[in-house]
Amino acid sequence: MAIRNYLPPLPAFLFSTLVVGGLAAKTLHIGLHFSSLPFLYLVLYSPTLILPDLLIIFFVRILLQFPAPETRLQWVSTCLGGVLSLLTWGASSIQFGFFMQTGAEVAWSASNSFLSDPAAMKILLSGISTVSAAGTALGLIAWLIHAYLYTLTGLALQGVRDLFLGTYKARYTLLSAPNKSWMASVDLRSARRVALITAALVSLLFLELSRPSIPYDHLSGALPLTLLDAFHHKTSTAEGCRNPAKPFPLYDPGEQSSLADGWSRPAWLPQVAPSGFSRWDKDPAQRAEEDNPSYFICDGGADGFFNPKADPLKISNLGDDIYEPLQKAFNEHSVQIDNVILVTLESGRKEMFPMQQGTPMFDGLLASHQESKRDEATDRLVTMTPIAQMLTGEYVSDSKGERVNLTAAKWQDPAEEGMGGLNVRGALTGSSLTFKSILGSHCGVHPLPVDLLEESLLEIYQPCLPQLFELFNQVKSPKSPVPIESRSNTSSSTPPSIDSLKKPWKSVFMQSITDDYDRQNILDDNMGFKHKVVKETITSPHAKYHAQGEEINYFGYAETELKPYVRDLFYEAANNNTRIFLSHVTSTTHHPWKTPRRWQKEDYMGAVGNINHDLMNSYLNTARFVDEWLGDIMNLLEETGIANSTLVVIVGDHGQAFGEDNKDMTGTYENGHISNFRVPLVFRHPHMPRINIDANATSLSIIPTILDMLVQSNSLDTRDSEIASSILPEYQGQSLIRPFVSSVKEGSHHDGKVENPDDNAKRAPHKHHDRPHTRYAWNFGLINAGGSMISVTAAGLPYRLVLPLREGFEYGFSHLDKDPGELHPIKAWTMGSLLKEVESDYDEEASEWLEEAEQVAKWWVNNQIRIWGYREA
């Protein structure tokens, strides 16, 4: 009989979308991890991976079995089956659309946060075209096979029913033995089928119980059941007491000081402690009884807040000498810092700041061109970021080996040869999620290792830069003594009768996009910004300068819309007795990498290779646009006359991976590739000598470096200088005006207790592998969205670990000296497997480091949750 679907087409089509969507999603899910799975194990356990999908398929087929809903039960059954089918079809379309955009999987556990955020919804909608294409393709396949699929599964279910319920009657009673006539009536083929099916079920059950939970539990997840993860909503709270600190795993840090030891309220703290300084406010014991138990652990009294004296990871270089050229400039009072500008470059990769030959990225870009055209491509690429060349002092060469001519750039560096400030080569971000990264640069803190910006609901455990400058304002006194010699190089823009050291600080945050995304506006307030210019400012009917151009992405406008606001702020600093701290975040280099229509784009990419280079070309153009914008900022400093008294700090929030870097995954989301972590870090001042610093520092060093510069350059009055000097050792990062310390032996003065050197005597030496333990400057980088994986490195060593924090993610190891572009990282599902491969491919030293890195990282994750006072509800 020809198979013909005599049923109404809708139930059959819905069922087919569930089968096609569910199995396609499962194939993609397994395929993304195929390279890290032992082939024989994958073959052996593959039946258990597909079992949940088959159970769902047959369950929904039963729900949709009725020809036409006639009773209430039939209506309910059909509707439920239809809903499950549509959910599976939609979710599978989203997974394929997301994969086509990024090469990664959707984390349904984070989707709830996106769906509740209007700005985040624009990100999701930006990929609607690929999702629609995937949904259309899946729907077309489902329509083509829906009749056959529906009928065949129905026949299969009927066969199973008949097989187990029986189609014959046994001629056997308890009172008589079976006879030949009964034996003849037995359907031997049916019996064999029952036996085979029973054996298969028993084998399947055995495989299910015996298989390793990692990674096969994760791989067996099936739509639509995995969508339930979206309803697991996390909330954070700072109420109640905190968990006690866990012992540090590698060595005994010795007797640790608590906050209560020798506590006294600082004389510089105002009567009412400003925001960010609450842990200096009261005796910890008194605070435990009176105000906020969240600073204390649950066993009754010991402090649970961040305590730098008890931090086993802290390495301090404050006892070391300042770089000699810098010290000379400070002694001669030639460095004046009245204003601080902190520019955060969205998706700012170090390889593009400036663009230069000799990096894995540059080699990848050239590979897109035919060999005969690579010299021409080289000359076009190396002239892409001229402002970055002048800001960093990294002047690059063209295809002929000659220094690039920068005379056509929008801004020309007026600094003398050999002057310009600090350029850090080797800096890494603390997170590939923008505002988790900004917590490091603006507040000197590590972010919270959970998804998205939960920190916005908690008290930041260190004072942020706006809060520090506001403290200087609050303690300012007209009678504060001012060292006369520190004003020997007063900027010509400052009236001689006004001493800039007595001016109040004004902290302003500017970006040309919305600050509503993921609670950024709340975080801005928590960091202490009282003045903001954002998208809502420049589009308000009352805007002083209304946005003139078009919106270039789903967040807002190009940076150039801020130009009149920046100019006004700089003139205010020059003429109105104000010292400014400006925090500015760029955004044009964010996906979808669009520039204003009237801005002329260039073709940087060729057509060679098996990937489309359009996205990379758009990104390169946005990088050139932002480079020109930095030139505008530097010109405004010159125009307003405050360039010689302004420190400009430039840092990338994170990098941005493309197919030219990593063919498997692009973007930052759940992508641990090294291209997402290398960022520029520059401290620009025209009267500071140019110093290149090769150090694996992070943005945690920004606040210590700024405070150290302000103190050493006599750019603070006596009172403010005392405060800055007192607070400086509290931060976890090192000052970069002194040599960066990558590692120390136990008992060294670099252990973070410079102010209490006698404490070193209390430290007990510890042996690891029969040698004195070396303490490294560990760097941790959260991988977007923050709670799935972290990147672990140790300054001065070439090793890198990507550590999963929850099920479904792989361990990764790379040796950055031998594989700087991370083209061939080692991946494994367990640490044991990874250790074996690393020791086999490299050496025992690498595997020993890997063991330490895992222990330290797991301790760090728990400790960060403790000191942030975070709990899931």
UniProtKB/TrEMBL annotation:
Gene3D superfamilies given in the database record: Alkaline Phosphatase, subunit A (3.40.720.10)
Q: Which residues cross the membrane?
A: 40-63, 75-99, 119-145
Which segments show compositional bias classed as Low complexity? Answer: 486-499
- List each copy of the Sulfatase N-terminal domain by range: 526-709
Basic and acidic residues composition bias: residue spans: 746-762
Q: What InterPro entries does the annotation carry?
A: Alkaline_phosphatase_core_sf (IPR017850), GAG_Ulvan_Degrading_Sulfatases (IPR052701), Sulfatase_N (IPR000917)
Keywords in alphabetical order, please: Membrane, Transmembrane, Transmembrane helix
Question: What segment(s) does the record annotate as region Disordered?
Answer: 479-500, 746-770
Q: What is this protein called?
A: Alkaline phosphatase-like alpha/beta/alpha
- Origin species, per record, is Penicillium angulare
